[in-house]
Amino acid sequence: MFRLETVNELSLCAKGDGQGQLFTKAGAMIGYYGQCHFEKVMLGPNGNPVQALLGQIGRRLTGENIPLMKVAGRGQTVSYYACEARHVTVINLNPGQSIAVESEDLLAFNDLVDYSLKPLGIGVISQKGLFTSKLTGKAPGAQVAIMTDGNPLVFDTPCCVDPDAMVAFTGPDPGFKLDLSWKNLLGQASGESYMLEYKQPGYKVIVQPNERKSGLDIGIDNHGESQHIQQNQSFSDAMGNVGDTFNNIGNAFNGGGGNGGGLGGMLGGIFGNR
Question: 4, 137, 160, 187: least surrounded by Cβ within 10 Å?
Answer without folding.
Answer: 187
